[in-house]
Amino acid sequence: MNINVAVMNSFIDGTTGGNPAGVVLNADTLNTAQKLSIAQQVGLSETAFVSASSSADFKLDFFTPEKQIAHCGHATIATFSYLSQLNLITHPKTSKETIEGNREIEIKGDFAYMEQLAPSYQDVDLDSEHVLKALGITQNQLLKAPMIANTGNNFLIVGVKSKGDLSAIKPNQTFIANLSKKYNLIGFYVFTTETNQGNRDASSRMFAPFYGIDEESATGMAAGPLACYLYDHMEIHKDIFVIEQGYAMQPASPSCIEVLLTLKKNRITKVTAGGTATVSKMLNIEID
């Protein structure tokens, strides 16, 4: 069986960079083993499979080369940007079904935005020293104590003081994977409020070896929790945050994610993260 895969660069910063994701349309007849095989052959951090849904406009299944995951930000933006470019979306307000429920999606011009949940937080004080060792940093480099933030997935948010601190991180992927397994994390999302471009709120790096991703250039599902953390714990009180990512990677792949917070009496009730995506290439995958 031949499967066509669109490789989309999501959250591109201007006209370049971004995070590539595979998108497979008309995936209704594919089983889990076939989807995993396709994701492994595509070889990207995530591939999205689109099929019909009885409860939303589209059903999306996300696979890393290692396993299925509940949500993926950049693959969601890739999918809905691709569907929009193919004129398969008839209304700017649309939706996706996932294995953990439905989420709203909105198309605004070239941008696609995805709904996330109101945030929840968890301390990791007992493992603070292990977190430092996992990233190769010292207590003196931290902005605040690391904390798990969740708007649909668990991410460990770690703030460092400068771009230099962010760039100098030497992750111990085994340590990160072990802590990710212990706390059910997608990964470590490390940030600084020093940015490479103006009018940005944070620059970040994402490490998710538990899901087979040593470093990712754009993570929409992590940018949402980070924006909430900046509002709730860094007391940066605004409702639009712009997060850059991928600048400190080798090679760099600059990305930009916009996060919108819905507030009620200064409490976050809803999170929406979005960006743009473009087709970089088409693949043809052979499976049994």
Write a brief caption for the model.
The protein has 288 residues and is α+β, with helices and mostly antiparallel strands. The chain is 22% helix and 40% strand.
Radius of gyration: 18 Å
N/C terminus separation: 6 Å
General shape? globular
CATH architecture descriptor name of the largest domain: Roll
**Parts with pLDDT < 50 across at least 5 consecutive residues:** none
Note the main sheet: 18 strands, mixed
Number of strands: 18
CATH class of the largest domain: Alpha Beta
Instruction: Report the sheet-strand fraction.
Output: 35-45%
Count of runs of 4 or more consecutive helical residues: 6
For this structure, the CATH topology of the largest domain is Diaminopimelate Epimerase, Chain A, domain 1
**SSE succession:** EEHEEEHEEEEHEEHHEEEHEEEE
How much helix is in the residues? 10-25%
The CATH superfamily of the largest domain appears as Diaminopimelate Epimerase, Chain A, domain 1
Mean pLDDT, nearest integer? 95
* Classification by helices and strands: alpha+beta
